[in-house]
């Protein structure tokens, strides 16, 4: 099992720009060791022959087709009440400086 030292935790903290006291580094060393131990257990699980599970409720394809629907309106009619139009699109004030 991979063991992290307190120096390893302090190095990780520096890379993440997190300030840790020596007591906090000691505490996190134990927590990281527990997490890494659990990850090692997960890596030992035999998953040979198992299909990936993306969902568990039996739905097959819940997406709709991406198709254009004609609602009987012309874009010019929809743009009549808009304050400012440019190239058949609604013109808005710039949002990003």
SSE topology sketch:
Elements: H1 6-15, H2 22-43, H3 75-78, E1 85-86, E2 89-90
Antiparallel strand pairs: 1-2
Helix pairs in contact: 1-2
List its traits:
97 residues, mainly alpha, Histone, subunit A, 2 strands, 4% strand
Task: Describe this entry's structure for a reader.
The protein has helices spanning 6-15, 22-43, 75-78, and strands at 85-86, 89-90. The protein is mainly alpha-helical and 97 residues long. The chain has a domain at 6-43: Orthogonal Bundle (Histone, subunit A), CATH 1.10.20. The two termini are 52 Å apart. The mean pLDDT is 88.
Summarize the structure.
By secondary structure, the protein is mostly helical.
Span between N and C termini? Answer: 52 Å
Specify the overall morphology: elongated
CATH topology of the domain at 6-43: Histone, subunit A
The level-1 CATH class of the domain at 6-43 = Mainly Alpha
Compute the average pLDDT: 88
């Amino acid at each position: 099992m991979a063991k992290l030292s307190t120096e390893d935790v302090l190095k990780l903290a520096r890379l993440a720009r997190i300030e840790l006291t020596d007591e906090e580094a000691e505490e996190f060393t134990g927590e990281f060791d527990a997490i890494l131990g659990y990850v090692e257990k997960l890596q030992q699980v035999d998953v040979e022959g198992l299909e990936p599970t993306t969902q568990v409720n039996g739905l097959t394809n819940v997406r709709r087709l991406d198709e254009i629907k004609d609602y009987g309106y012309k874009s010019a009619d929809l743009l009549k009440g808009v304050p400012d139009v440019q190239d058949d699109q609604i013109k808005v004030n710039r949002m990003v400086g």
